[in-house]
Write a structure and sequence with these properties.
This protein is α+β, with helices and mostly antiparallel strands. The chain has 17 helices and 6 strands. The protein folds into 2 domains: 308 residues, 2-methylcitrate dehydratase PrpD (Orthogonal Bundle); 116 residues, 2-methylcitrate dehydratase PrpD (60s Ribosomal Protein L30, Chain: A, 2-Layer Sandwich), CATH 3.30.1330. Strand 5 and strand 6 form a beta hairpin.
Length: 450
């Protein structure tokens, strides 16, 4: 236990800060540098399209109504905002489709919070591409370390980790961008942690993507206040009645040396990540010849936690549909397409999907396996079974990184090109892939201000 103001070597917050504060882009392993660019590829693509959705347009309108101009660019708009306001707008846009990357270590979506904070803080402080990427990696690593400290109990209690842990990661990325000293870092994390909030009861509503925006804004604001000398408990993670104790943390820090960013998972489908194992299982059976019209019943045996996250039985909106195991299963069987274009206002009421949705039963696994078991009973023929766990990261080998880059480029092209055209999309790709040597962020800002 620490006392107010204690910053001894035993401080848990300082232990986290000491791991991430020294990070520099040119000293990172090549797989880490490439993965950082991959995260930017992924988030920018979903944010550009996400900026056109109601949650993002409403937040953007709110910010421009009440804020003056500032140094930070806004996705989907040529105007600029103060850094914290831009982080709020861009974070909301990045999470609006629920198509952004996830991390098991963090227990949520790291890049959708950390990148908007990194970009806003980097523009505020005039950083170049490598410096922004270093701040981004520092933020992701912090979010993952804090996520490990919290463990699964925090999420099980009903906290949205992207919002809570994400705010601390965003503060770290902004502290890195501002080149704060160790004490400033600890105070920034304390300020962010005391403001961090987000409830899983908001899943399926506009407030879920707003969580990411709030977390990004909180991180930028916390680092800015810390830079001005604002005080906070210097060990918010380890203190009595601190972040970890109050919000249900049960984990520990892992040994030093590994980079959690290497285990970030990129979504293939535009729905809650916990629906992906069942979707992949059904798609595999579909590829083997299974047709929706021959399905008599589907049973999804899922980890118990899924039932408290994405089990909306009869969705009525596109956002609710993204958090419905039954609806995503029906989409997998009927169309085989779970891209963003499949989650329309009409989709939940589609009679073809509703008919299949009624045949889907969901039960909790009795064991501790993270996999989903899919069982399909057909009108004629034997029962079909598939078991899938999409939470296993791919190895960070050169060939796998090359493959992933191709996949993420295609994802960005498929999302963005229909909205802004081939020329603008090509400029976006060039700007993102040029970040490791970019002297400014001007090209990226101009490309995303569509």
């Amino acid at each position: 236990m620490t006392v107010l103001g204690d910053a001894t070597p035993r401080s848990l917050t300082r232990a986290v800060v000491d791991r991430v504060r020294p990070l520099r882009f040119d000293l990172m392993p090549e797989p880490v540098r490439r993965t950082a660019v991959h995260c930017v590829l992924d988030v920018v693509g979903v944010a550009v399209v996400g900026s056109t959705t109601p949650p993002a347009t409403l937040v953007r309108a709110e910010m421009f109504d009440e804020r003056s101009s500032g140094p930070a660019g806004v996705v989907g708009d040529p105007r600029r905002l103060p850094a914290a306001a831009a982080a709020l707008v861009n974070g909301t846009a990045a999470h609006a489709l629920d198509f952004d990357d996830v991390s098991a270590a963090m227990g949520g979506h790291p890049s959708t919070v950390v990148l908007p904070a990194a970009l806003a803080a980097a523009e505020r402080h005039g950083l170049d591409g490598p410096e922004m990427l270093a701040a981004f990696v520092a933020g992701v690593e912090t979010a993952c370390l804090v996520g490990r400290l919290m463990g699964p109990e925090h999420y099980a209690r009903g906290f949205h980790t992207t919002a809570t842990v994400g705010a601390v990661g965003a503060a770290a990325t902004a502290a890195h961008a501002a080149a704060l000293d160790e004490d400033g870092w600890c105070r920034a994390l304390g300020i962010a942690a005391t403001r961090a909030a987000g409830l899983k009861s908001m899943f399926g509503t506009m407030t879920k993507p707003l969580h990411a925006g709030f977390a990004a804004e909180t991180g930028v604001r916390a680092a800015s206040l810390a830079a001005r000398g604002f005080t906070a408990h210097r060990d918010v993670l380890g203190a009595e009645q601190g972040f970890r104790e109050v919000l249900g943390g049960t984990g520990v820090l892992p040994p030093e040396g590994a980079f959690d960013i290497l285990d970030v998972l990129f979504k293939r489908h535009a729905s809650c990540f916990l629906t992906h194992s069942s979707v992949e299982g059904l798609l595999r059976l579909r590829e083997q010849g299974l047709r929706a019209d021959e399905v008599e019943a589907v049973r999804l045996r899922v980890p118990p936690g899924h039932l408290r996250v994405c089990a909306i039985p009869d969705p009525t909106t596109p956002l609710e549909a993204k958090f419905s195991l039954r609806h995503t299963a029906a989409l997998a069987l009927v169309t085989g397409d779970l891209s963003e274009r499949s989650f329309t206002a009409e989709s939940p009421a589609d009679p073809r999907l509703a008919a299949v949705r009624e045949r889907v039963d969901i039960v909790a696994r009795a064991d501790d396996s993270p996999a989903t078991e899919v069982r399909v009973r057909r009108r004629h023929g034997p029962e079909l079974v598939a078991e899938v766990d999409v939470s296993v990261p791919d190895p960070a080998t050169p060939s796998e990184l090359d493959r992933r880059e191709v996949v993420l480029r295609r994802k960005l092209l498929g999302l963005v090109e229909p909205h802004v055209g081939a020329d603008r999309t090509a400029r976006m790709l060039t700007a993102i892939e040029g970040l490791p040597t970019a002297r400014t962020l001007d090209d990226l800002r101009a490309a995303v201000a569509v």
